Amino acid sequence: MSDGTRENGDRDKAHTKEAALSARLRRLGEGLGQAQERGAKPADDAGGDRAATASGYARGFRLSSELVAGVLVGAGLGWLIDRLLGISPWGLIVFLLLGFVAGVLNVMRSAGVVPGPTPGNGKSAGRKQ
């Protein structure tokens, strides 16, 4: 008889634990749903985040390609001048450095750190006539 009551008590205890677990799980689901509603962004913002990331990557690739292009053009011109004038390696060294400077200047202009050349009559904007 004690064995039967023990099994029945274990079943009631297990049933109570399952009911409590189900209630906690339901409360957790409701809490998560409310938290998602409060913090949910419209679907356009998710696309905006992706667009901002893609725009950032595009800008980074553009800036790096401008720097690399400046260095490569400078090195190419220096090599060509070395071949034509026979002053190896000085043309390559000088034009490689000039290409690097031009590449850095282009990157700074594209990034908005340094203002680009102003269109006009060729005179400096800061000088008075």
Order of helices and strands: HHH
How big a fraction of the residues is strand? under 5%
Largest sheet: none
Distance from first to last alpha carbon? 115 Å
Structural class: mainly alpha
Q: Compute the gyration radius: what is it?
A: 35 Å
Descriptive overview:
This protein is mostly helical and 129 residues long. The chain folds into 2 domains: 1-41; 55-116. 80% of the residues lie in helices and 0% in strands. It has 3 helices and no strands. Helix 2 (43-85) runs antiparallel to helix 3 (90-111). The model has no long low-confidence stretch (mean pLDDT 82).
In short:
With 129 residues, the protein is mostly helical. It is built from three helices and no strands.
How would you describe this structure in keywords?
129 residues; mainly alpha
